[in-house]
Write a structure and sequence with these properties.
By secondary structure, this protein is α+β, with helices and mostly antiparallel strands. It has helices at residues 3-8, 57-86, 141-151, and strands spanning 22-26, 29-33, 104-105, 109-114, 134-138, 165-171, 181-190, 193-201, 217-223, 232-238, 244-251. Strand 1 and strand 2 (29-33) form a beta hairpin.
């Protein structure tokens, strides 16, 4: 044993050391780790504080360092295991809030939207006040031109290539005050069913509203390829409360 150990550890010469001290470094400090075992002496008394080997303050520091290291290692292992378990299903895509299960969303672009039109007021297509919104799926240029002629939209509609696109229209109908609006928010395809979600806005009861005649509308375009394979598709229009507004069966 090195000379330094004779100053740190006391033992009886009649009882040789049972173990060899080991040096180690923990957290930047050098410590000595010596397993301690009680031994019976020749006078048949249990060796206690002054038996075969007595750990001093340095060895106690080593024991505390070992304990801290064991706790840290156990904590790190627990975090790794928990992370692996939590990430096992991370590749599964969860449905978005409000998105129908197993449905595919179809991208749409606004063709025209506003609050001022004559839809429902002209003689050709009269509509009563507070009637249900009119929902249309337009697949030909002639249909769109007819709708534009009886609606007199506040802004001209853009050009639509019906060989590649179709138009979905939501017409709120005539209202005698301002504060009303209609917006197509989402379109989903699942099999032969198409779900069109619409947001309806009304003025607050008892609130101040402009006393003007309005007829809000919203028209969007969608690519025909998004509805392939085509065939006979059922378009269901629902409001933000999931109430069915209308159904239209269309050949794509």
């Amino acid at each position: 044993m090195e000379k330094g150990y004779n100053r740190r550890f006391r033992y009886k010469r009649s009882h040789p050391l049972l173990v060899t001290p080991v040096k180690a470094t923990f957290y930047g400090r050098e410590v000595c780790i010596i397993p301690f075992r009680r031994q019976r002496c020749g006078h048949d008394k249990t060796t206690d504080r002054k038996g075969v080997l007595e750990m001093d303050r340095v060895s106690n520091t080593g024991r505390r360092a070992l304990l801290s290291l064991a706790v840290a290692a156990f904590t790190a292992l627990s975090l790794i295991v928990a992370g692996c378990a939590g990430g096992a299903g991370s590749d599964d895509k969860a449905p978005l809030e409000g998105e129908p299960a197993n449905a595919r969303e179809i991208a749409v672009k606004t063709l025209g939207q506003g609050t001022s039109s004559e839809y429902g007021r002209l003689e050709g297509v009269p509509a009563p006040e507070n009637a249900q919104p009119e929902c249309l799926v337009i697949t030909e240029e002639e249909e769109l031109q007819r709708l534009a002629s009886i609606s007199l939209f506040q802004e001209p509609l853009g050009e639509v290539d019906f060989s590649r696109n179709l138009v979905i229209a939501a017409m709120l109908g005539p209202r005698n005050t301002g504060g009303y609006a209609i917006t197509i928010t989402h379109v989903y395809r699942q099999g032969t069913a198409v779900r069109v979600e619409i947001e309806l806005v009304e003025p607050e009861p008892g609130g101040m509203s402009a006393q003007v005649l309005t007829s809000p509308y919203h028209l969007v375009t969608a690519e025909r390829d998004a509805f392939q394979p085509g065939g006979s598709l059922l378009f269901t229009f629902v409001d933000q409360n999931d109430n069915t507004i209308a159904e239209r069966r269309v050949e794509i």
